[in-house]
Design brief:
Length: about 90
C-alpha cells in the first residue's frame, strides 16, 4: 500500500491533486490517500507530480509518499470510522 499525503496552499491545485489521487485510491483523511501499491501506479503518480504539480510548488507546499510493506500493514491499528475500512458491508432493501 502507498500512503500519499499532500498540502498545497492554493485551493485549486489542492482540489485538482485530490481528484487526481482519487482515480488511484481512497481518501482516508483530509489530504491523505491510501493507494494500492504497484510499480506502475507509483510511476504514474511520480510522472504526474513531476509533469503537472512540481512546478506549481510554493515554499509551504509538499507531497509525501510512504510505501507500506505487507508486514507493516498487519501492524496498523485503526480506530474510529477507519476501523471499519476492511469490513464487508451488506445492504438489504
Amino acid at each position: 500500500m502507498l500512503i500519499v499525503s499532500y498540502d498545497f496552499a492554493n485551493d485549486k491545485v489542492r482540489t485538482r491533486f485530490a481528484k487526481f489521487l482519487s482515480a488511484y485510491g481512497q481518501k482516508i483523511q483530509y489530504s491523505v490517500y491510501s493507494i494500492k501499491n504497484s510499480q506502475r501506479i507509483l510511476a504514474n503518480i511520480l510522472t504526474e507530480i513531476d509533469a503537472s504539480y512540481k512546478r506549481e510548488f510554493k515554499n509551504t507546499d509538499s507531497i509525501l509518499i510512504f510505501s507500506i510493506c505487507d508486514g507493516c500493514m498487519k501492524k496498523i491499528k485503526k480506530y474510529g470510522s477507519a476501523g471499519h475500512d476492511n469490513e464487508d458491508v451488506v445492504y438489504f432493501d
